[in-house]
Amino acid sequence: MTNPVTPRLGAHDSDWHAPVLVAEVCAALADCPHVLDGTLGGGGHTEALLQRGHRVTGLDRDATALATARARLAAYEARGQFRAVQGNHDAIDEVAALEGARFDGILLDLGVSSRQLDDDARGFSFRQGVALDMRMDASAPMTAADWLNESDEAELTQVFKEAGDEPKARRLAREVMHRRERQAFATSDDLVGAIRAVLGPRSGPGDFARLFQAVRIAVNDELGGLSRGLSTLRDRLVPGGVLAVIAYHSGEDRVVKHLFRDWSTDCTCPPKQPMCTCGGVARGELLTRKPILAGDAEVAVNARARSAHLRVWRRASDASALSTSRGGR
Predict the structure, then answer these.
(1) For a 10 Å CB count at each end of the chain, is N or C smaller?
(2) Splitting the chain (329 residues) into consecutive groups of 10 residues, what average pLDDT does each group show?
(3) 272 CB contacts (<8 Å, ≥6 apart)?
(4) Within this chain, do residues 98 and 233 fall inside the same structural domain, yes or no?
(5) Where a domain ends, among 204, 219, 234?
(6) Given this model, what pLDDT does residue 42 score?
(7) Could you report how far apart the first and last alpha carbons of the chain are, in Å?
């Protein structure tokens, strides 16, 4: 069914997004006739899969992304090989158009697309004067400004520390609270000012990007949504189906790693116990013991690929057939 030709580096880039690890994704999903691309974006990964003969359902909660991808992939849509659906992959059971749908493969390319980052109206950027919005879904009620103005010290600290890897998280949380007493946070300048006040005048774009990303993750509940959504997506795979996830943030990658590991474990009894008594049955197997990373050539032309981690898991063909004995591990 699939075309053996390896996708050329950069061949599927668009103004919207430069997809990473395209060849690796195509290899992971090579035996999956019908794929759900749960983060359609500009359609780069989907285009590569379509060219190799797969049928693809593309899902995205961003209406602009859907329109862009549909225009790009119109020929495939016209012949019934591609379908675009608006919805959130973290809540696929709420997407009426996909009720009861099952897939041979599912792909998630997490994070924010290049075009979303570059669109000041979306409020993801720390460029001067940009409104603090950061909502992936423009209809969602809470903006980044709302979150910064309303969260308590404990929540601010937790997000700056865990999602932003910030050693001075508590100090930054207190600085945010102190500043908002005088004037509510509204633009990127307000958050940049708070960061500089705590990290010092030598803080720069790397610090801003890291902490703005942490706020974005909190505003969109990305880690919580990912954990809930992956379990639901797992259950949408046919027996033997494959789930491939590209993560760029350490917190996202940790969620994927732990879930894939847990789903691949068939026994939780103590190691020295001679017989299994927990009755656990693995739901499938981990296909990547370590994440797949981008090569030097890809990183050289797409810096975003440097932090990409691809992990792949396969659902059991027949879960009831998996042994719960020690010998079956």
Answers:
(1) N
(2) 53 64 97 97 94 97 89 97 95 95 96 58 73 84 95 97 94 98 96 97 91 92 89 97 95 94 83 72 93 95 91 84 36
(3) none
(4) yes
(5) 219
(6) 87
(7) 33
Question: Is 122 a domain residue?
Answer: no
Q: Give dist(CA 40, CA 85) in Å, integer.
A: 9
In a domain, 11, yes or no: no
The residue among 219, 252, 277 that closes a domain is 219
The answer to whether residue 65 is domain-embedded is: yes
pTM over 0.70: yes
In sequence order, the β-bridge partners of residue 86 are: 60
